[in-house]
Design a protein that fits this description.
By secondary structure, this protein is mostly helical. It has 2 domains: 58 residues, no CATH class; 31 residues, no CATH class. It is 78% helix and 0% strand. Helix 1 crosses helix 2. The radius of gyration is 20 Å and the shape is flat. It starts with a helix and ends in a 10-residue tail after the last helix.
């Protein structure tokens, strides 16, 4: 590994950080909400992957909370969108 490698990675990181910081400005200017929506979803999934890596990889713990969240939340969302389910009653079935 030569001496230029750390500065190259630092430069690439700064360019990526600047691009991510300017993405909402560009989306507003171009009237393109897809960019912000896509980057938000990518951030949410990357945070979920990082937390799962931290729990399973470094700590060695099996996390049933991730499976519960990723399985229960979409089902609840579908019930809410199809039947008008609220917290007052659960009539999805």
């Amino acid at each position: 590994m030569n001496a230029a490698t750390p500065s190259l990675w630092r430069g690439l990181f700064l360019v990526l950080l600047a691009a991510l910081a300017l993405a909402p400005v560009y989306a507003q200017w171009a009237s393109e909400p897809f960019i912000v929506t896509f980057l938000t979803r990518a951030l949410v999934f990357s945070l979920a992957a990082l937390s799962l890596n931290l729990i399973l990889g470094f700590a060695g713990l099996v996390s049933f909370g991730h499976a519960f969240t990723w399985g229960w939340a979409p089902m609840g969302w579908v019930c809410w969108r199809t039947t008008g389910w609220t917290t007052a009653g659960f009539n999805c079935w």
